[in-house]
Amino acid sequence: MRAPQRHHLRATGLGDDAIARPFVGVVHTHGEVSPCAMSLAPQAAAAKLGVEVAGATAREFTTVSISDVWTLAHDHGPQYSLISREVVADSVELVLEGQRYDAVVALGACDKTVPGMLMAMTRVNIPGVYIHGGPAIQGHRDGQDLNLYRIFGDMDRAALGEISETGLEDLNRDTVVTIGTCPVQGTASTASASAEIMGFSALGSTTMPAVFPQRTDLARKAGEHAVRLLMQGGLLPRDWVTRESLENAVTMVAATRGSSNMLLHLPAIANEAGIRFELKDMAAILRRTPRITSVAPNGPHFLLDLHRAGGLPVVFRALLDGGLLHGETPTNDGRPLSAALADARAPDGRVIRGCDDPFQSDSGIRVLQGNLAPDGCIVKTADLPRLVFEGPARVFDGDREARKGIAEGRFKAGDVIIVRGEGPRGSPGMREMLEAPSPIRRRGMGQDVALVTDGRWPIGTGGLCVAHVSPEAHSGGPLALVRDGDIIRIDAERGTIDVRISDEEFARRRSGWTPPPDWVGGLAEKYARSVGPTHLGAPTHSRF
Ligand code: FES
């Protein structure tokens, strides 16, 4: 470090002794944008204390986050949520590289901040530890725990007149009662669980609620550990991101029936390590892994219950005992996973079960491929009586048109409803479509139609809902060439999705197809021009 940098550091209040030590960036997304991140500043302070006690100098900085709850509200224009993942990763890289920090402690707490932090850590590849902000505690009313997913059902009931708007608002008011991330197995907790099983964070840390005072101790230890990794030449993030650890993470997603968004984020994290890991690499894992937890929306319990049952180490141990994990992958403290889990409790049988006595025999998520999705797509199959659907296409271009058309009843039983142009580049930002399926659900027609999109369905219809179709329509994927009336067959049993069009007809239609213009304006324009395909995780700097 030379004189210009030293004078600047002195102006921040550091003495010569602090300047002589290694520098550890402590980055978080604390702010008042959402309750998710509001526990992070105190945890960052504890992490800084740990860094200082361990003999390094902590430098705190922040980056942005937005809440997925808000991005769900838009039916047109950029979906900034997935875009924000790239902004988080890029901004953390910017500071870590620009300021030449020696190590990092990264704290995240919402759907896209977690994968964004993991991507940045892997990209920069300096010693570091990830700390999850921790889940909120669920609300309770009339003898029942409440969760976000229930709100969608309650909205349906209100639309049908089964409950009043006041009743809806009363339930809404009681849904979550503390700060923290969604207290269910949503994207933030699934992403953090991936961090835990891959080695980015300490075992057992994900499920500890945001408001538990023990989080201060956990964060302090993480700060100390980051310095230990630096001083002792310990593991780097790319030692944690391997094909085996990625497969372990997919197994965990399957076993907890975690958020399918993680099937987008894991390839993006792999990309940062130079590993091509895509949808088709996950297909067999998703089929063979049983669901062994019962956390909402897949059961009556919450992350607090999972924590009290021993947390994720119990889940990992059960999967290891079931022969479903690579036991030699390194954990955050450097021990192989199998050794680190040796003392994990046995499943309680209520929130967590063993692989020989699962809640369900598979993950309830399948990967499909075929001439409609040559690079793959996903479908949720849990609890569906019917895994094969064949019918004529009913095509809508974009969420706005789909919302209107479906609400007006411009579809019939037997249709395969297609909503295209909502992929990462088309939206741009890969829309999570919340409202379009609602009228189908409310009419009780979930089993009568199938849905197919290159965007995402956070909440489906209760029938076959295919998402993440890759390549997307906007980039000229086959979905762009489908017309009303084309016969589409979805076979989730065999893992296929095809449209009955001959190769010659496909070629004829393609020759007359004109690519739609990319979004113009601001960040979304830059994003649309650089984003990669869904099956590779939609990264903005794909290595493949
Ligand atoms: Fe932030 Fe769910 S909206 S974690």
UniProtKB/TrEMBL annotation:
Domain Dihydroxy-acid/6-phosphogluconate dehydratase N-terminal: 21-338
Pfam families reported for this sequence: ILV_EDD_C (PF24877), ILVD_EDD_N (PF00920)
GO biological process: branched-chain amino acid biosynthetic process
Gene3D superfamilies: IlvD/EDD C-terminal domain-like
PANTHER family: DIHYDROXY-ACID DEHYDRATASE DAD, DIHYDROXY-ACID DEHYDRATASE, MITOCHONDRIAL
PROSITE patterns associated with the record: ILVD_EDD_1 (PS00886)
Keyword Iron-sulfur: yes
Bilayer-spanning residue ranges: none
Protein name as annotated: Dihydroxy-acid dehydratase
Molecular functions per Gene Ontology: dihydroxy-acid dehydratase activity; iron-sulfur cluster binding; metal ion binding
Family designation: Belongs to the IlvD/Edd family.
Keywords for the protein's UniProt record, in alphabetical order: Iron, Iron-sulfur, Lyase, Metal-binding
Location of the Dihydroxy-acid/6-phosphogluconate dehydratase C-terminal domain: 351-538
Keyword Metal-binding part of the UniProt annotation: yes
EC number(s) given by UniProt: 4.2.1.9
Domain of life of the organism encoding this protein: Bacteria
Enzyme class: lyase
